[in-house]
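Q: What would this chain look like folded?
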Amino acid sequence: MATYSELVSQAQALMAQAEQVRRQEFATVVADIKAKMKEFGITVEDLGSVSSARKGGAGKAKAPAKYKGPNGELWSGGPGRKPEWVKAVLAAGQSLDQFLI
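A: My prediction, written as structure tokens:
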């Protein structure tokens, strides 16, 4: 029978593996969505407030966008998790100033 420490170690290894696979699948899904958006001429604005609908905050006021990403993504620059495009821009050593609206 495995010890507690061994099971915790296995669980951590599985979680790391799961996160790696999630990132790979995420990239594939995003690429597919972008391709469909391009094919049908869909803009981010056409999608509406996806985050409000997902979080159930349909009546919640949203901060105006301060930044526009390379593919038209909008971000208010507020607190909370940074969008993937912001993380990528910062990781590439670029400044967010060039994305100010």
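The chain has four helices and two strands.
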